[in-house]
Amino acid sequence: MAGLSAARVLRRAGCYVEVFEQDRIIGGRMATMRLGTASFDTGAQYVTVRSSSFQKYVDELVGSGYATAWAPRGLNGEATPTMQQWFVGTPGMSSILRPLAESVRIHTSRRVHTMKRGDKGWNLWFEDESRAGPFHAVVCAVPAREALLLLGRIEKLADPITRVRMSPCWAVMVRLDSKLLPDKDVYSDMSEVIRWVSRNNAKPGRASKGDQVLIHASPAWSRETEDADPEAVAEDLWAEVSHALGLPPTRPAQMSAYLWKHGLVETSLGETFLFSSEDMVGVTGDWCLGRMAEHAFDSGARLGKVVMDALE
Ligand SMILES: Cc1cc2nc3c(=O)[nH]c(=O)nc-3n(C[C@H](O)[C@H](O)[C@H](O)COP(=O)(O)OP(=O)(O)OC[C@H]3O[C@@H](n4cnc5c(N)ncnc54)[C@H](O)[C@@H]3O)c2cc1C
User: Is there an atom of ligand 1 within 6 Å of 28 CB?
Assistant: First the structure.
């Protein structure tokens, strides 16, 4: 989100931009993953809007059918009262990134291993020892720990980043052949182990044969079990949810667990972004401003503007 948000600002200003993503697909923590015939939002569950710039973007998404409002049902089938309106991507959360990715050159399965600045600009090296560059400027839009690995030598960027804390989060996708969950669509902070449960198929635009349940474990439990076998994690978390909801013993049609290693921001940087005009490199991410997708969007857009000004 942060990287593509910066890329769009730079692209619109006429810069030539290339994006390098380590995964096979783009999206990062705004992922939509498949399990058999079903798809699940395994990271961000919805987005909220505070800034006018993100409001404008969400209006654009809603207008083009990439997102819609979601009011999940509470107990007794009523809408859950929330402080702010929730929006979800359609047909999955990753759709929220679609317009940002348009007209940007994106390379997937390209993990940046090393970045170095030479006489002609920045060069990037990848795990297969291939190289890209030189580039006039680099925007580093990765979780804080990764940013430190890449930019550790630039003290004025590295020192503040060490303040940031991010915690792991296990996500479990559960596909059920029949509708099993009670009326409510979301449950938050159910126990010391379970942080969030949602009926993914209750979101607008999702197919709904049976129930598709998405579970997020608490940061504390996720940290304790970081090295555990994903299959065992899926079993444990499904047992915990079944117990908490008083469900009859049921064997899911399919289950799968995924660990977000740097999932949730615990302590943010408290600044919109970091940028060194001397080195022509900046750092962005949700962890700069807060912990939500909207923070990533705003952080990236603001850094994009500053890089653009520095390039002029
Ligand atoms: C379980 C969970 C639930 C959440 N729920 C919500 C929610 O309901 N609402 C909300 O607003 N937010 C939520 N969030 C937070 C939201 O997902 C993030 O704020 C947002 O996606 C962050 O975007 P980002 O661009 O800063 O980082 P990321 O999405 O992490 O993007 C960083 C990208 O960099 C790539 N990368 C990392 N290292 C390298 C490298 N060396 N080379 C190349 N590529 C690299 C990664 O693969 C990734 O694609 C949730 C997050 C998690 C994990």
Answer: yes
Which of 142, 266, 288 to probe ligand 1 with, by most ligand atoms within 8 A of CB?
142
Residue ranges, CATH 3.50.50.60, the chain: 2-164+267-311
The CATH number of domain 2-164+267-311 is 3.50.50.60:
yes
Q: Is the CB of 87 under 6 A from ligand 1?
A: no
Residue 78 has pLDDT above 60, yes or no: no
Residue from 5, 8, 25, 29 to probe ligand 1 pocket by mutation (most atoms less than 8 Å from CB): 29
The alpha carbon of 95 and the centre of ligand 1 are apart by a number of angstroms equal to 14
Which atom, in ligand 1's list, is nearest to the CA of 113? 41
pLDDT digits (tens, 9 = 90+) for 230-274: 999 999 999 999 999 999 988 999 999 999 999 999 999 999 999
Contacts 24+ apart (CB under 8 A), 119-127: 121/280, 122/280, 122/281, 124/20, 126/20
Residues of the chain with CATH 3.90.660.10: 166-263
**Residue nearest atom 2 of ligand 1, based on CA coordinates:** 43
Q: What confidence tier does 208 reach under pLDDT thresholds 50, 70, 90?
A: confident
pTM of the entire predicted model: 0.96
Q: Give all strands (DSSP E) within the chain, no chain letters.
A: 18-20, 32-35, 38-41, 67-70, 86-89, 105-107, 112-118, 121-126, 131-135, 138-140, 165-176, 186-188, 194-199, 211-217, 254-267, 274-276, 281-283
Section 156-180 average pLDDT: 95
**pLDDT per residue as tens digits for the range 170-190:** 999 999 998 888 889 999 888
Q: Note the CATH number of domain 166-263.
A: 3.90.660.10
44 Cβ below 6 A of ligand 1:
yes
